[in-house]
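Dear support,

We are seeing what looks like truncated structure output for some complexes. This example has four components. We would appreciate it if you could run it in full and send us the complete token output so we can diff it against ours.
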Amino acid sequence: MTSIITEMFRNMVFTEHELQYMQGKLKKIRLQKKDFLLQEGEEVHDIYYIHDGCLRTYFIDTTGKEHTLQFAVKGWWTSDYIALFGRERTKSVSYIECIKDAVLYQISKDDFDILCDEMPKISRFHIKNLESAFAAFHRRILENLTLSAKERYLNFIKSYPTIEQNVKNYHIASFLGITTESLSRIRREIASE
Amino acid sequence: MTSIITEMFRNMVFTEHELQYMQGKLKKIRLQKKDFLLQEGEEVHDIYYIHDGCLRTYFIDTTGKEHTLQFAVKGWWTSDYIALFGRERTKSVSYIECIKDAVLYQISKDDFDILCDEMPKISRFHIKNLESAFAAFHRRILENLTLSAKERYLNFIKSYPTIEQNVKNYHIASFLGITTESLSRIRREIASE
DNA sequence: CGCGACGTTGATTTGCCTCAACGATTGTGG
DNA sequence: CCACAATCGTTGAGGCAAATCAACGTCGCG
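Here is the complete output from our reference environment:
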């Protein structure tokens, strides 16, 4: 029997019993474009696996500007990690918005922790993911320190071609930390080369 | 018996046997100011626990400028995480320099992975650390997107008072992503308030 | 003492932002 | 299916924060 579980854990092999056990902790969620998975101030207890569609995590600063932290497409996991993983649990500081109709699977962080304790292969999977993310974060910080807006944009469309198709330019701008006007000028410049 | 191991794992309790087993995988390292723990191009196999002193991780961009990714003081762990945790293992892209005489304990990533497999409490410890770091990274990216150089500086000296004492201003500047001149002007501005 | 490393200051430049206006594209109700 | 509105993207003018370039104090150390 094939299951969403095997997709979530990158084709890891499970027994029928394990599959049913894990399945019981999952909840399927359908979202439409513009729906919010999470809004600022809400309590955060869950993590979400994206089976299809596209979401973005952003927060709004004191001047009202949006800043995009992360996009998530098929195969990715998302949540408000600041609230969920921070040393002291806080309410959500960000918004997670559906930007392309999506199908998600939700599991509570508590249940996920239990799975990690009960099943070493899940624990290893989680560690591997976190380590990869760790490296990716270092790379992103390093890029932010080093590259010009234009270079960061070129980098983005090269690194995330799947995401580029789903998102608006102003989403990309807010991810890169620039204004839509600047991005527009950058795109013109690139087109003229 | 008290051991460096209990310090490394935040007062976790171990049996005498466990302590000796783990001790066998550790190597003590002493570094003096200006020594390098790691240089660009070297192979990376180990992670390092800082028992004392201060280190900084930086890399040099194509124009020769230094960018500081991370400082590390007592109680922290460090390595070139891009090389060590990245999906494909690469040689080091950064330098880790001792900026205050230091005592470290080295353990290979392979051995650490073995410990995680053999000892669930180590696995949980590792996951907890990675998750906290994950949240911290999100916060740092968010700050970089939001705050002015002056705000980031004030934030830095508030968040890391222990580090501030050990590092030069130009280290802080390269951590914040600004020039030493700009930092100097910011400090003057703050002093005059 | 004298040298090198570090920090400061000033003048100028630059990359990106802000504000304002105007096309282009998308979506929706009649 | 069209008409119109809303959303999104582009362009221009002007401004500002931080970079660059250059010079000069200051501190610590051989």
